[in-house]
Amino acid sequence: MAEAWTALTVETVLNAMPSDLKTLYASWVEANPSTANRLGELVDEVRRTFRSAVEANPANQLDANPETVPVTGFRHAINSVIFNLGMEMGAEFSSAVDGLITRADIWLRMVQNGGIPIDSAAGEDSPTYRVPEGTRWLL
């Protein structure tokens, strides 16, 4: 059974972060102790943004757990957190990263507009197709 929503946490972002950026992040926090909680703040902000996009369309179903994002947007959410953190740290990204962020923005708009339906019902494999009753298969 596929889960429709998954947790977006500081730990999941750190696990997905490229090692060179993780090293830069550790150095940044060491040099600027006041930034120690910044990654957590960015995770919260991105999580709220993604959940707000889902909630904006009444056809979507919002998961009850506030620490989750839709599985279909999970990679976009992680990329958004890493990108925003990198920008704050002064990291330079390739143009390919700009493409990742553009795709995340497009995903958010499509969720809001209903182009990507979001459902909180875990337990169904995605995508699903049910053959209508009485349908005969021709092989």
Please give a structural write-up.
The chain is mainly α. It has one domain (5-113). 53% of the residues lie in helices and 4% in strands. The chain has 5 helices and 2 strands. A two-stranded antiparallel sheet has the order 1-2. The protein is elongated, with a radius of gyration of 18 Å.
Key phrases:
139 residues; mainly alpha; two-stranded antiparallel sheet; 5 helices; 53% helix; elongated
Number of domains: 1
Largest sheet: 2 strands, antiparallel
Which percent band covers the strand fraction?
A: under 5%
Poorly predicted sequence stretches spanning 5 or more consecutive residues: 122-129
Structural class: mainly alpha
* Widest β-sheet, arrangement of strands: 1-2
Q: Over the alpha carbons, how many angstroms does the gyration radius reach?
A: 18 Å
Element string (H = helix, E = strand)? EHHHEHH
Give the fraction of residues assigned to helices.
40-55%
Overall average residue pLDDT: 88
Number of helices: 5
Quaternary arrangement of the chains shown? single chain
What is the general shape? elongated
DSSP summary, beta strand count: 2
Cα distance spanning the termini: 29 Å
